[in-house]
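Input record (one chain):
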Amino acid sequence: LDLSGVDFTNTNLAGANLWGANLTNTNLTNANLEGVDITSANVRGAIFTGASVETLIGTELQGAPAGLPTGWSISNGTFGRTISLFGVRITGTPEVGQTLTVAPTTTPNGAALTYTWFRDSVEISGETSNQHLVTLADIGAQITVRVAATKAGYWSTTQDSTALLVPSTFNALTRVQLTGSGTLGSVITLNASGKSGISSLKYQASRDGGQTWINVTGNTYQLTFEDLGLTL
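The corresponding structure, as predicted from the sequence alone:
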């Protein structure tokens, strides 16, 4: 069937059998192609822009069209569309005990997602959810996640996140403060800021310029006779 160059703009061709047809330079803009079979057709230069092709049967196609509906393509001679993935990035604090998360979205909605986590490009066994709990094994390593999306009627797609480094050292403290009066028996409160994630803080005090240190319970210290006249 030779339909080369025919203008089918806005034409209802639903259910037509165009198996093996010559559709070279055929204009199918905005045509209704629901259930149309174009298996083995030559679609070189054909224009499918705006056409309804959700149930189009198109495999073993020859040539490359000049225009396709948004989101559709031809790969290895098959007419179809690929799922688009967005937001494949790791969020969370990269520290031991913290949870890293990836929360991608897809176009169209409703695609099934699978997750594979990697430590320095080596797959982490058993990690199949969208979350990863940082462990001691991750210290100093680059963490990545690969997301695969599948949906009936679409070609599957995969995407890797950028790497997230789990530091091998704690973040530096930015400030340590003492608050309270300097009178005998008063309570001094020690506060530090800038600690990283879930890291715990322990305090010590010195009255001799750091040569000896006194362990502090919690973050408070009660001044004694030994502190009089000295700088804490």
